[in-house]
Design a protein that fits this description.
2 domains; 2-enoyl-CoA Hydratase, Chain A, domain 1; 6-stranded mixed β-sheet; 263 residues; alpha/beta
């Protein structure tokens, strides 16, 4: 059975990490499948939002410690499981960061280590009451290797990020909500319903405008304001010429919901 499942619901692509018997702990096969599926969805004009979740009672337990201590899998002593020609540009955290398609994490349980970094790499996070983020890296002798050292300080500030990473602390859903790491916390049985409702709300808007907005938000993390404004203006010009822009204006004037086609 595939370790990454893909289901399309309207304009929403739902990706599910699928090793529920191991709390979706990562394998090389899972990483390859996740990266390629994310790229496939981002290139599909019919996909306007990507939802990432886990099968079973957890999102992702991170590194499969059972396999690693048994001498197999990623992180095994003397065999880190990383090929010498590993290209980080095609690794899931890098791919996730570079997507123009909006991403929502439906955090259905624990997310530890690599799983926490994957969750933080999504644009929006909706958490079940039972969900938690475990920054267990330093408790396992490693560091947040999959984007966490870049993401967490930007999300919660340097001091809070330092406290979380240095202590290896586990955060409850309520603590994550208070820190701004979760957009919303919902009852466990309503997680996917609430997540898909938000995804569908986003998907009704002009897809090219959303993709351009996300692209410019990402660029703005490293650009000076004056340069960024010029960059945004260049992104705006083709949108003015799009059929979706005309549809948006006509829908406003005619007092109806727009019907965007991504053209």
């Amino acid at each position: 059975m595939s370790e990454v499942l893909l289901e399309q619901i309207g304009h929403v692509a739902k990706l599910t990490l699928n090793r529920p018997d191991r709390l979706n702990a990562i394998t090389g096969t899972m990483l390859d499948g996740l990266a390629s599926t994310l790229i496939e969805c981002d290139r599909d004009p019919d996909v306007r939002v990507i939802v990432l979740t886990g099968a079973g009672r957890g999102f992702c337990a991170g590194l499969d410690l059972k396999d690693a201590t048994a001498g197999t899998g990623i992180g095994a002593p003397g065999n880190p499981g990383m090929p010498p020609d590993l290209d980080l540009r095609t690794a899931p955290p890098t791919v996730l960061h570079s997507l123009d398609t909006p991403t929502i994490c439906a955090l259905n349980g624990g997310a530890a280590g690599y799983g926490m970094d994957l969750a933080l790499g999504c644009d929006i996070r909706i958490g079940a009451h039972s969900s938690k983020l475990a920054a267990a890296f330093t408790r396992r002798g490693v560091l947040p290797e999959s984007g966490g050292t870049w993401l967490l300080p930007r999300l919660v500030g340097w001091a809070k990020a330092s406290e979380i990473i240095f202590t290896g602390r586990t955060l409850s859903s309520e603590q994550c909500l208070e820190l701004g790491l979760l957009n919303k916390v919902v009852p466990d049985d309503l997680l996917m319903k609430e997540t898909l409702a938000l995804a569908e709300e986003i998907a009704t808007n002009a897809p090219m405008a959303i993709r351009a907005s996300k692209r410019m938000m990402r660029a703005g993390l490293s650009e000076e304001f004056d340069n960024h404004v010029q960059h945004v203006f260049l992104q705006l010009l083709p949108l003015f010429r799009s059929a979706d822009f005309r549809e948006g204006m006509m829908a406003f004037l005619e007092k109806r919901a727009p019907r965007f086609e991504g053209k």
